[in-house]
Amino acid sequence: MQMKQILALALSIASAEAAYKGFNYGSTNEDGSTRYKADFVSQFKNAKNLVGTSGFTSARLYTMIQGGTTNTPIEAIEAAIEEETSLLLGLWTSGGGIDNEIAALKSAISTYGTSFTKLVVGISVGSEDLYRNSVTGVESDAGVGMNPEDLIKCIESVKTAISGTSLSSATIGHVDTWDAWTNSSNSAVISEIDWLGFDTYPYYQTTDENDIDNAQALFDEAVAKTKAVADGKEIWVTETGWPVTGDSENEGVPSVANAKKYWDTVGCSLFGTTNTWWYIQQDYGASPSFGIVGETLSTTPLFDLTCPNSTTTSTSTASTASATGKTSGKSSTGSSTGSSSGAKVSGFSAGRKGNGTAAASGFRSMTASVPLASASGSSSTVSGSSSSGSGSSSSGSSSSSGSSGSSSGSSSASSASASSTAYTGAATRPAGSIFGAVVAALALAIAV
Ligand SMILES: *[C@@H]1O[C@H](CO)[C@@H](O)[C@H](O)[C@H]1NC(C)=O
Ligand SMILES: *[C@@H]1O[C@H](CO)[C@@H](O)[C@H](O)[C@H]1NC(C)=O
Ligand SMILES: *[C@@H]1O[C@H](CO)[C@@H](O)[C@H](O)[C@H]1NC(C)=O
Questions:
Q1: Strand positions, DSSP E, 156-293
Q2: Residue having the nearest C-alpha atom to atom 9 of ligand 2
Q3: Hey, what's the signal peptide range on this chain (predicted)?
Q4: Ligand closest to the CA atom of residue 136
């Protein structure tokens, strides 16, 4: 074998074992202003240069539409091409804006060609739409959602739209809270997609023992329950994180030390083995705030991002799956319930961005799907990578994702209104007890 071939083989093996790693990025800045190419470039560049880690070169988007336009492709695409950042595309489906989202997607394909499509890790049709339509979502005024039948129509429309284009082989998924996935009324959606996007925030699982020391157990339990209904499809972790500042949620206490512990345990068990888009790089004016660099964009994080024992990563991931059993046992009281609540919580978390207003936006942005299941996830991931080429990579920062997300919504005509509503809802999250009761009921239903 010639050196060239050996190198090529080595590269293909390396990419096969890799997983995408990055952040969530909304279409607006933290102050609500529209994000343009330069803003995305700054975010992607910063993510690639974070001190103490490397490889955060993927970006999850919530909308295909540039803020302030009807259906012009989001400028994050040009930034991603320039920064060689891979993209988990998102189309905002709730609220009736799918046609403009698809128009922007098709326009991006024809405008940028393979320099764009080679960066695409996958396409998420929707974000937490099922959650917003669930009992908990409705009770918490989470905003305009979508029923599974309409969501499936959107998924089919996107498949038709990419057919025959240079994105025809892109994998299609949907991002939602984990309890939306475990709700059997939504199972037809799973049949339509290639991977499940998964959002989970143990910090918000207020009916569980959600102190930081139990966070990984709660997370693993949510993964296991989702895997159980995933039909063998990959789970991509689209959103997770722990706040550095803000109010406590039951036993969940925001702090830099706890955010670091969450990164070191949950994060480091995923990085490199499961496609993961962290929430978030930068979080401005939010409470709680999840930004790992704080409010100001900087390559110096608030805590050491170096994974404790890098060699442990794969192992940990593997344990995720099995962890479930363990978790359940542990939290007999809370754990089962917890999981369910977790899902709902996720939705909330998404909304958390900034004060009430901001929060709404956050919801949108935060929604995402990630491959949790390390095993299967990795494989898919890999495939995705190859198709994308080397490109995947930049992860961006995500703090604004939350807000951005909402903005995204706004930008897209109809989506906009939906988003606003949703956000508002987020702000008015139901009281813990009510929420808890719903969660508990859900947990029971699941258990049965
Ligand atoms: C389960 O999903 C269906 C369809 O999305 C939804 O109408 C229902 O409210 C969900 N159930 C719960 C308990 O949220
Ligand atoms: C990490 O490495 C240190 C030093 O070798 C060891 O003491 C510790 O147990 C390891 N931690 C894990 C989680 O493997
Ligand atoms: C929310 O943000 C708006 C706009 O920045 C501000 O006027 C308002 O006081 C904030 N509300 C809270 C509760 O922080």
A1: 172-177, 195-199, 234-239, 276-278
A2: 309
A3: 1-18
A4: 1
Does the beta carbon of 340 sit less than 6 angstroms from any atom of ligand 1?
no
Dist. CA 350–CA 7, nearest whole Å: 42
Q: What angle do CA 282, 284, 290 make, to 5 degrees?
A: 55
- Tell me the CA–centroid distance for residue 353 and ligand 3, in Å: 12
Among residues 107, 66, 171, 228, the alpha carbon closest in space to that of 382 is found at 171
Catalytically active residues, by annotation: 128, 239
pLDDT in tens, 234-269: 999 999 999 999 999 999 999 999 999 999 999 999
Question: Whose Cα sits closest to atom 13 in ligand 1?
Answer: 135
Phi, psi dihedrals of residue 324, rounded to the nearest 5°:
-50, -55
- What is the C-alpha separation between 238 and 351, in angstroms, rounded? 15
Write the CB contacts of 166 (distance below 8 Å, at least 6 apart in sequence). 109, 113, 114, 117
Whose CA is closest to 185, among 151, 232, 142, 156?
A: 151
Asked whether the CA dihedral 306, 308, 313, 319 is positive or negative, the reply is negative
Distance CA 263, CA 240 (A): 10
318 three-class SS = helix
* Residue from 280, 210, 247 nearest 43 by CA: 280
Query: In which band, very low, low, confident or very high, does the pLDDT at 286 lie, cut at 50, 70 and 90?
Result: confident
In this predicted model, what pLDDT tens digit does every residue of 150-176 receive, in sequence order?
A: 999 999 999 999 999 999 999 999 999
pLDDT digits (tens, 9 = 90+) for 127-141: 999 999 999 889 889
Residue nearest to atom 6 of ligand 2 (CA): 309
Question: Is the beta carbon of 315 within 6 A of some atom in ligand 2?
Answer: no
Nearest CA to ligand 1 atom 6: 134
CA torsion angle for 389, 395, 398, 403 (degrees, to 10)?
A: -20
Note the ligand closest to the C-alpha atom of 310.
Answer: 2
Return the amino acid letter for 339.
S
- Dihedral (CA of 291, 73, 175, 169) sign: negative
The Cβ of residue 321 has, within 10 Å, a number of other Cβ atoms equal to: 19
Six-digit token string for 298: 């900087």
Q: For residue 136, which amino acid is it?
A: T
* Helix%, strand%, coil% for the chain, nearest 5: 50, 10, 35
Residue found under tokens 């918490």: 140
Distances (CA, A) of 341 to 8, 235, 243, 320, 378: 46, 19, 18, 19, 27
